C-alpha cells in the first residue's frame, strides 16, 4: 500500500499538485487519470522520489520516505518496478540482457541464477525464446511485454506504469493492460498506472484517482465512473467521440 498525505509540488510560482491525499491499495491496479497537464506524471515522479515535493508525506506500507535514511531508500528502490512510457529498452542489448539489467544492478546473483529468473519472467509474459533478439527485431507489443518482464524481474512490491499503452493498437493495449492486472493480482503488488486511456479505465480501473489541475477531484472504481454525475469526470469520459455515440444510442433505445 502507498499513502499520500497532502502532497504539494510547485515549479517556480506555479502550483502543480495542490494538496493531494489518497491511498493506493495493495494487490490492485490503482489508476491516476486526467487530462493532459493535470499533474499525473509530476505525481508519479514525486511518488518514486524523482521530484521532491514542497509539502506532504508519502508512505510506503506505513514508512514515510521523508524519514528513511539512505540505506532504507536504497532498499525501497529495489522494491520498485518501473514500466516507462515507450518501454525504454536498451537498443544495443539483447532482450535477455535488458531483462537481466535490474538483477545485475541490485543483486549479487550468479549469471546462471539470473538467467533462470529472466527465463521465468519471459515465460510469464509469453515471450519464450526471444532471449538473443534485439529490441528492434520484435514488435512494439512484444517490446512492451519485455519491459514488463524487466519491471518485475526483481519481484517488486510496488509497480509504476507510465502510460503503458502509448503507441499500441487497441487490441495489443488490452493484452498489456490485462497482463499488468494479472501480475498485480498474482504477486499482490501495489500497482499504479498513469493513463488517459479510457480503454484502460474500463479494463483495469479497480481504483481510479481523477486529477484536474493538480487537485484530486474524484475517486472511485470502474463501475462508479459511469454512474457519477461529477461533471469533470463525465466530461473526461465522454470526451471520446465513441463513448458519446454509445451513450446517444443507449439513450435512444432506453
Ligand atoms: N520539470 C518541470 N518543470 C516545470 N514545470 C513542469 C515540469 N514537469 C512538469 N511541469 C508542468 O507541470 C504540469 C503538469 O504536467 P504533467 O506532466 O504532470 O501532466 P500530465 O497530467 O502527466 O500530462 P500528460 O498526460 O500530457 O503527460 C504542466 O503544466 C507541466 O508543464
From TrEMBL:
The keyword Transport applies. InterPro entries: AAA+_ATPase, ABC_transporter-like_ATP-bd, ABC_transporter-like_CS, P-loop_NTPase. GO terms for molecular function: ATP binding; ATP hydrolysis activity. It holds the Pfam family ABC_tran. Residues 2-238 form the ABC transporter domain. It comes from the Bacteria. Coiled coil: none annotated. The keyword Nucleotide-binding applies. Keywords: ATP-binding, Nucleotide-binding, Transport. This is Phosphonate ABC transporter ATP-binding protein. It comes from Patiriisocius marinistellae. The lineage of its organism: Bacteria, Pseudomonadati, Bacteroidota, Flavobacteriia, Flavobacteriales.
Amino acid at each position: 500500500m502507498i499513502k499520500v498525505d497532502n502532497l504539494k509540488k510547485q515549479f517556480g510560482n506555479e502550483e502543480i499538485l495542490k494538496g493531494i491525499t489518497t491511498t493506493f491499495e495493495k494487490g490492485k491496479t490503482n489508476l491516476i487519470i486526467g487530462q493532459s497537464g493535470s499533474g499525473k506524471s509530476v505525481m508519479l515522479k514525486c511518488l518514486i522520489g524523482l521530484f521532491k515535493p514542497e509539502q506532504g508525506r508519502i508512505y510506503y506500507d506505513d514508512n514515510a520516505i521523508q524519514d528513511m535514511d539512505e540505506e532504507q531508500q536504497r532498499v525501497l528502490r529495489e522494491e520498485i518496478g518501473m514500466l516507462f512510457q515507450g518501454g525504454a529498452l536498451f537498443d544495443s542489448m539483447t532482450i535477455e540482457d535488458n531483462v537481466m539489467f535490474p538483477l545485475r544492478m541490485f543483486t549479487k546473483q550468479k549469471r546462471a541464477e539470473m538467467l533462470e529468473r529472466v527465463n521465468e519472467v519471459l515465460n510469464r509474459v509469453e515471450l519464450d525464446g526471444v532471449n538473443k533478439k534485439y529490441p528492434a527485431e520484435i514488435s512494439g507489443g512484444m517490446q512492451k511485454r519485455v519491459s514488463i518482464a524487466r519491471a518485475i524481474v526483481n519481484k517488486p512490491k510496488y509497480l509504476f506504469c507510465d502510460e503503458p499503452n502509448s503507441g499500441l493498437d487497441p487490441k495489443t493495449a488490452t493484452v498489456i493492460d490485462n497482463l499488468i492486472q494479472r501480475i498485480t493480482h498474482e504477486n499482490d503488488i501495489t500497482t499504479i498506472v498513469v493513463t488517459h486511456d479510457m480503454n484502460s479505465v474500463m479494463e483495469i480501473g479497480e481504483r481510479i484517482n481523477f486529477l484536474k489541475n493538480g487537485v484530486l477531484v474524484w475517486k472511485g472504481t470502474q463501475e462508479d465512473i459511469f454512474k457519477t454525475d461529477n461533471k469533470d469526470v463525465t466530461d473526461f469520459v465522454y470526451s471520446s467521440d465513441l463513448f458519446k455515440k454509445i451513450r446517444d444510442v443507449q439513450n435512444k433505445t432506453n
